[in-house]
Amino acid sequence: MVKAYYFYDVAEEKQAEYLKFVAEVLKPFFQSRGARSYDVHQNVNLEKSTNFMAEMIFDDVETMQKTKGLHGNDPEYDAMVQRFFSFVTEPGVKPMGNYVQKI
User: Fold this and answer.
1) CATH of the domain at 77
2) Which pLDDT score is estimated for 97?
3) Structural domains in the chain (count)
4) Which of 13, 16, 54, 99 could be joined to 6 by an S-S link, Cβ 3.0–4.6 Å?
């Protein structure tokens, strides 16, 4: 099993629309392309947090890499990523990603 974590900020005024986008677009998209799950978490340490973490779980490294390989090869994927970045507070800064595998 492989877990991919992404950390990023979404401005408070965009959060409701962003969470709708997650439920209606991101989650179904990635689950239909090999992710076992796609969940988003929000930092609760702050009163008005803009910090989010997305967690994707894949069965194996190959499936994760295949999904990541859609970038630049799948117009639907590229449009979805562009829309995702429209919600990120600092669009020029890519979300930090970590990939871990249970050993």
Assistant:
1) 3.30.70.100
2) 66
3) 1
4) 54
Q: Which residues of 15-46 are buried (b: 16+ CB within 10 A; e: fewer)?
A: beebeebbeeebbebbeeebbeebebeeeeee
- Per-residue confidence (pLDDT) for residue 101, from 0 to 100: 66
Low-confidence ranges of the chain (pLDDT < 70): 46, 71, 91-103
Q: 4-13 b/e with 16+ CB inside 10 Å = b? A: bebebbbeee
pTM for this prediction = 0.81
